[in-house]
Specification:
Layout lengths: L2 H22 L1 H7 L1 E2 H5 L5 H4 L7 H21 L2 H23 L6 E2 L3 H14 L4 E4 L3 E4 H18 L6 H18 L3 H4 L1 H19 L4
Antiparallel strand pairs: 1-2, 3-4
Helix pairs in contact: 1-2, 1-5, 5-6, 5-7, 6-7, 6-9, 7-9, 8-9, 8-11
């Protein structure tokens, strides 16, 4: 097994072990989840540990499958160290954005590696925008189309607040992965100009909506 495979499987393995412990131990789950009240009281470690917990096995499988699907693109495009940095930086970015938008909701809770995985996904998208994906495992489309659509859907989800999906963490993680990749590979501004612009537009929309109090 090469170091790239090892890095991805180590992340998947640790996440699975911690998640399964959380499935069976409510005290453990509540001690390490993302909880605004506890974080504001000084338990900042939850900003990190919450990414290793999941609601159920399907939640875990979906996130780890997405990581496996896009992780090798990042490793191939930039390297193992960069993959690790993107994963954990996006994890923190997702939780920081969540903390910002929900700072006054002391009972807000969240778990899952989605923010970190989104960072890896959007890093892959900006490097390989024409990669073919299957929406709902059926509809083929280039990765950049899915990426742009999902950012816009996340904004809608953040505004509607009609489900239990962590749209804010997803969006923050995507920003983390996108920004790191563009900083590391500024040539993408020239080679993938249109895709970069289209991915940045939803971020600008979110910024203005937040400033105007619409989200």
């Amino acid at each position: 097994m090469d170091i790239g495979n090892l890095a991805i499987w180590v992340v998947i393995g640790i996440t699975a072990l911690v998640s399964f412990k959380g499935f069976d131990n409510v005290y453990f789950f509540r001690k390490y989840d993302f909880h605004i009240g506890s974080i504001r009281a000084g338990e900042q470690y939850r900003m990190f540990t919450s990414a290793f917990l999941h609601a159920d096995p399907m939640h875990l499988i979906f996130n780890m499958y997405a990581l496996y699907l896009f992780g090798f693109d990042v490793i191939w495009g930039m390297g193992v160290l960069e993959f690790v940095i993107i994963y954990f930086a996006s994890l923190i970015c997702g939780n920081l954005l969540t903390l910002y938008f929900h700072k006054n909701d002391l009972f807000y809770r969240a778990i899952g590696a989605s923010g970190a995985v989104m960072g890896v996904m959007y890093s892959s998208i900006v490097m390989f925008p024409d990669k073919q994906l299957l929406l709902f495992f059926v509809i083929p489309m280039p990765s950049y189309v899915l990426g742009i659509g999902y950012l816009l859907y996340s904004i809608y989800g953040m505004k509607a607040k009609a489900d239990n999906i962590g749209h804010t963490a997803h969006f923050g993680g995507a920003i983390g992965g996108l920004v790191f990749t563009l900083c590391k590979m500024p040539q993408l501004f020239q080679t993938n100009t249109l895709v970069v612009v289209l991915l940045i537009v939803p971020i600008i929309i979110l910024f203005f909506m937040a400033r105007s109090g619409k989200i």
